Amino acid sequence: MSILLEIKNLVKDFNIYQLHKEIRALKNVDLKLEEGKFIGITGRSGSGKSTILKCIYGTYLPQQGEIFYDSNKFGKINLAKASKREIIYLRQYEIGYVSQFLKSMPRVKASELVEEALIEMGSEKSYAKEEAMKILSHFEIDKALWDSYPNTFSGGEKLRLNIARAMVKKPRLLLLDEPTASLDQGSKEKVKELIIQLKAQGTTMLGIFHDLDFMKGVCDQELQMKDGMLSTMKG
Ligand SMILES: Nc1ncnc2c1ncn2[C@@H]1O[C@H](COP(=O)(O)OP(=O)(O)OP(=O)(O)O)[C@@H](O)[C@H]1O
Q: Structural domains in the chain?
């Protein structure tokens, strides 16, 4: 199996200027993710888990280290040094990110939000509509809501919509930032089913989960984050 993502010696500091303080959120993090595999990261709040994903997704720029991603379009690319244009391309076509928070757009209906994710990738409108309907049904988002604006949705509905939008694209690499944090057991199971399906279709995943039971059976490897360092789970 080939390596899809390789992180070497990643360091990320945050400067809190008002407090004249510097936080080292990531301390020499290394990670290797094989194509088609799913690595799960656990760890205490504030240990640096989200920061890793945000560095990969290009939201944060690390101070040191490399994030090699084997892109379809660009070949092996260091995401820590990629241009804005390259990051935008990769977000559109290859790398997905699901967090607990929905980035809804004003006056875009729930179904359109999902359809647009596919249209952006070049899908036909009719195909996008069909796929959007399938995934919204899978996540049991009430049909009455499909034509509504998500800013009025409940937290759980927003979250399920967010997951649907990222997963419908079947990205090559999917980053999951505690996507099930505030979901009930039934919705968590739906997410799990889709993760298993996506994996079977070849999506590689790196995810953060607090719920260790959820990770069982879906992750190929579990890593633990502690004080900005990543290690293999024991026991
Ligand atoms: N944008 C930022 N500016 C300043 N400090 C930040 C920023 N993002 C994260 N940090 C700090 O970096 C550290 C790691 O944060 P991170 O969000 O990666 O933790 P986490 O393990 O994902 O936590 P949680 O499980 O609570 O989401 C924390 O001390 C946090 O306060």
A: 3-227 (3.40.50.300)
